[in-house]
Design a protein that fits this description.
Elements: E1 2-8, H1 11-18, E2 24-32, H2 41-45, E3 52-59, H3 66-75, E4 84-85, E5 88-89, E6 95-99, H4 102-116, E7 126-129, E8 133-135, H5 143-146, H6 151-167
Parallel strand pairs: 6-7
Antiparallel strand pairs: 1-3, 1-6, 2-3, 2-8, 4-5
Length: 178
Amino acid sequence: METATLAGGCFWCTEAIFKRLKGVTSVVSGYTGGNVENPSYEEVCGGDTGHAEAIQITFDPKVVPYEKLLEIFFALHDPTTLNRQGNDAGTQYRSAIFYHDQSQKEAAEKSKANAQKKLTDKIVTGIVPYTEFYEAENYHKNYYDSNRAQGYCQVVIDPKIKKLLSEYKMDVKGEYLG
């Protein structure tokens, strides 16, 4: 098993996407990239911790290679907006790949270059070394699946899940998503 750490806006969205992939055994929402130990959600939202909302993925690279995770990462959020995803604004919503080793760094750089070929606006996704990951509070975990009727889930996350299902059918677990 390997670990990937990604920040692509609200962690409710990224968790909902990546937990549906074959070969992914866990997705944990949390905070990384900042300078405060064990930050709270409120502290991170305040913008002074330097942390991004992120997810930490445990995956089997024989089933889903790291490169596939990165391809989906770039396809299912807007990597061209600085410190923003939709209405979520602030450095905590930045796009970043936190690499765990040299091979992940190289794969991230290659994936970013490939994604850039498909876009006209410049990708602003940071590729930075992983340092520490702090798990989010329990009420953030499995948020989408526990709150599908909530407006944010219907308006923001549902379209991302639909895009995942339409573009990456072969990579998605055969679970009920309705």
